[in-house]
Design a protein that fits this description.
Blueprint (H helix, E strand, L loop, with lengths): L11 E4 L16 E2 L2 E2 H9 L6 E4 L14 E2 L9 H15 L5 E6 L9 H12 L3 E6 L2 E10 L3 H9 L6 H5 L4 E6 L13 H11 L6
Parallel strand pairs: 1-4, 1-6, 4-5, 7-9
Antiparallel strand pairs: 2-3, 6-8, 7-8
Helix pairs in contact: 2-4
């Protein structure tokens, strides 16, 4: 849990609701690099920064029992993508954490996330008076890795259900967004594993990561 008293309490959600088609199905975050699962590495990065973590995943929640995290499923049917996981989390926060305004979302297959992720996203959000704060590296934004205002949940629900908005960037473009850049050398902290080739690359990158 973060100890920075100037930063608002910020629970984090690890988005693991995808179908992993490019890996032949299954749970991408359960793949291993360096003898540890991707999910374990993401938890290690985010737990010290967040006021609690939850996991967004569909199907039998028992398969994640060893991680000791609350597991919430998408509320919108037919796997509409990460926005459904964000919506489920914002609804969860409204019901179970009415004391918080902000939620961090992150992909559960990004093993090298920055250890200053939450602090910097908040810092720039405040400086720019933004409604959302999104990570970026190498000139490319990563809209799944972001701070979300819980008050946006009804607008997000309408976008998903009534407008069939699936792309995160299409939704966030409606708001004032703070973009926070991280260096991509010696490795991109937002590298994510989508294919078996990516897993092999992650094994190599882990050797370059002093914090791995």
């Amino acid at each position: 849990m973060t100890t920075n008293s100037e930063m608002p309490a910020t629970p984090g959600v690890l988005l693991a609701g995808g179908l992993a088609r490019r890996m032949g199905g299954g749970d991408k975050p359960m793949r291993e690099i360096g003898g540890r699962t991707l999910l374990d590495r993401v938890i290690d990065r985010l737990a010290p920064q967040c006021d609690g973590l939850i996991l967004n995943a569909n199907g039998d929640a028992a398969r994640f029992a060893t991680f000791g995290l609350p597991v919430i499923a998408d509320e919108v049917a037919d796997f509409p993508g990460p926005l459904a996981g964000v919506l489920a989390t914002l609804d969860w926060a409204a019901a179970h954490r009415p004391d918080v305004q902000w939620i961090l979302s992150a992909a559960a297959d990004c093993p090298f996330l920055p250890r200053d992720l939450v602090a910097r996203l908040h810092q720039v959000r405040i400086e720019q008076r933004a409604q959302l704060s999104v990570a970026s590296s190498a000139g490319r934004t990563h809209p799944v890795i972001a701070l979300w205002d819980v008050s946006l949940r009804d607008e997000l629900r309408y976008a998903l259900v009534a407008e069939d908005v699936r792309k995160v960037g299409r939704f966030t473009a409606r708001y004032r967004v703070a973009t926070v850049e991280w260096p991509a050398v010696p490795l991109d902290p937002f590298f994510n594993a989508n294919t078996m080739e990516d897993i092999a690359e992650a094994e190599r990158l882990a050797l370059l990561d002093d914090d791995a």
